[in-house]
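Supplementary Methods S3. Complex input for the manganese (II) ion-bound model.
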Amino acid sequence: MQVWNDYLSQNKQRFLDELFELLRIPSVSADSKHKPDMQRCAEAVKENMLKAGCDKAEICPTGGHPIVYGEKIIDPSLPTVLVYGHYDVQPPDPLELWHSGPFEPVIKDEKIYARGACDDKGQMFMHVKALELMTKTNTQACNVKLMIEGEEEVGSANLGKFLEENKEKLKADIVLVSDTSMISMEHPSIETGLRGLTYMEVEVTGPNRDLHSGVYGGAVANPINILCQMIASLHDENNHISIPGFYDKVQDMSADERKALNEAPFDLGEYKQELGIKEVWGEKGYTTLERTGTRPTLDVNGIWGGYTGEGAKTVLPSKASAKISMRLVPGQGSDETAELFTKHFESIAPDYVSVKVTALHGGEPVVTPTDSVAYKAAAKAVETSFGKAPIPTRGGGSIPIVALFESVLGLKTVLLGFGLDNDNIHSPNEKYDVFNYFKGIETIPYFHKYFAEMSK
Ligand code: BES
Ligand code: MN
Ligand code: MN
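Predicted complex, serialized as structure tokens:
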């Protein structure tokens, strides 16, 4: 719409400046040293909601970091869109690999570089700016509620309770989330599923103290060696996960679904080149797109033990540990998978060591419908702003709260994400294309317009 284009082109620089202000706040939810920054960031989000035209915006304290809630209700007879996003970010380290400071946003080659540029401050802020666009041009088509949390990157432990306690306040017709990716700007797409997650920590203990590896080495099991053997045994020669029962409840995709999924534009050569790998790896019998979108996986996220300082120390350590996460697909349950893992990991521990297994957090997988009014409105919005109909894809990432929107609030979600898989989220040099930021701000108001029209 012309009024939107005009408003956007007149306010471009300010829309960038305001995002940069938010990106300068190091809102790292995992690190307690950033607790004051979390509060500061929540306040900044609240102020921006009010500036965008919200009648009400508030900071809701939780047992952890606060949730920011705002709303602009124009007419109770119109549909209501509940926007979800997160203002917390992943830790920025390793710092030395950043080309510019993680909390000193810069634009280079038309890309915004900063921690949170894409995941999720940049994407969340598009909704705040889109709301401003609509309120300032008198074109808001749906009631809008915004719920922006500060604990997504650490498992959203307090958000479930918030949903339970605020069912009335959060009443809506659809949840709209921009926290996922598209294939590319030439091939716009909408993710129609997220994987679940089960996150474990294991500790293997051998002798009751660190030992001299010359005096005892060869006669006492080294917990690091044993842990490595145990981890290696978690995949078989076909890269299937060897935990008994792990795949029992996995819902396989139909031949048609697989075919559709593999028709998405994807260049394996480019994929490998961009990652600097000679070959891709994965479960036998599945393509790369199937492996990331539709199959469960198991990855070690960190492993430690023994001496890792400068130079050499000949030690046979007493303990070794690892963080191991599993991505889940429809049919699998997070708690159930944690139990299967625990039972199996304990059972494969040889008598030379003892093991302790702890479940850290998890979330359930989701599939979002493509035959709903909301999906159709989103597809039409993308088609309007990109000039091309979006391709439905399955994302590999997880947003655990999405399953709870359905089970607690009875709401379906549309994953209207504008990131790219190579935006380096959770990595050094996270970026978000300036183009994508504005494309998102342009697309979102169309979603509201079409959702209102098509809901009639
Ligand atoms: N925005 C991501 C999830 C995502 C990324 C979905 C790309 C689809 C495409 C989210 O912030 C995230 O990182 N989630 C975590 C899970 C959480 C419990 C720490 C994840 O997927 O590892
Ligand atoms: Mn995110
Ligand atoms: Mn993330």
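The chain is about 35% helix and 20% strand. Residues 2-23 form the longest helix (22 residues).
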